[in-house]
Structure formats: C-alpha cells, structure tokens
Amino acid sequence: MGHGGNVIAELTTDHREVDEMFAKIEIQPVGDTQRRKLVDELTIELVRHSVAEEMHLYPAVRDYVEGGDGIADKELAEHAEVEQHLKDLEGLSADDAEFDHLVAKLKLEVSAHVRDEEDRLFPLLAAACTPQALDELGDKIRTAKKTAPTRPHPSAPDTPPGNKLLGPGVGLVDRARDMLTGRGKS
Fold it and tell me: Which residue, among 115, 113, 110, 119, has the nearest Cα to 21 in the 3D structure?
C-alpha cells in the first residue's frame, strides 16, 4: 500500500502484490488456519484498492476517456461481484467446504479484472491524461487507501459522492475492529 508513482504504477504494483498473496494462499495446506489469515490480509488489500479506484480512478475514466462511462460501469460491476465473494468468505473457516471454492472463484474474477485494467483501461487513461494528471491521481489513490474500509461492504455506495462521504468513517470502524481482533496481522 502506498508505493509511489503515477496512478498506473501504483495500481499495477497493487496488482502484483495481490498475485503474490494468492500464491501464498495456494501453497498452504487445505484447511490450514494460515489460509484464513492470508485471505483476511488479501481482503484488506482488495477492499482498500477497490475503494480507492471507485473514489478516484473510475471518475477520472468517466471524465477523460472516450466511452468512459461504459468502462467505469463495467469495472464497478466487477468490483461488486468480487466484494460479494469477499463478504461470503468473511465468515468461513479455512476448513469449511466452501472456502477453497470461493477463493478459487475470487482468484479467477480478480485475475480477469486485473488483465482488463492493465491491457485496456490503463492504456486508454495514459493516452487521455497528462503525466501530471496521472501523478495527481496516484497521490489521491494513495491517500484514499490510507482511510479506506478494510472489510467488504457490498451495500455501501461505490460512486461519488456517497463513497467519498461514507468510506473514511467506515474505514475507521473497520480498522478499529481489525486492531481489536488482530485481523490482518499474521
């Protein structure tokens, strides 16, 4: 979280970290409690990343990229699916029969979403924005990730202004819960 650089570099680095987290989950024995802990860490990062994109990246895509409304709507729909899977995983233990199925499904959806962003959305955004605008978006993304929620909230607003108003407060509550429970600390 908070790598530096323009928005594309920032989010691409996040994508590689998520790939690494999935790899760490996959090498753990089925049913091992470490899998649960790693999925919690993955959830924290995916939620922060998604919220930051929803607050800043997709509005910029709408503003600067031709056909941006359709692209942003598609990305938001994919986020909603991923967030629902994260919510479904939230209450499961690693030895639950559904746990590994949901993790595998989550990985497929996240991987497809990442490929689409990196192969299509990022090049369109880079062509439509100045380097300065991309740097400013990177700063906004980093700032948003610091206060973003850490748990899935599928019914929360995913577009401005609702997400910008509610996100930091929900994030504060989530981080307090995480601190009390030790969630996300392996």
Answer: 110
Name the token pair of 170. Answer: 């929900």
How many angstroms separate the Cα of 3 from the Cα of each of 131, 151, 169, 180?
17, 21, 24, 27
Sign of the torsion angle spanned by Cα atoms 164, 166, 169, 171: negative
Q: Give the span between the Cα atoms of 116 and 119, in whole angstroms.
A: 5
Does 147 have pLDDT greater than 90? no
Give per-residue pLDDT as tens, 87-120.
999 989 999 989 999 999 999 999 999 999 999 9
How many Å apart are CA 129 and CA 142, to the nearest integer? 18
How far apart are alpha carbons 15 and 1 in whole angstroms?
A: 11
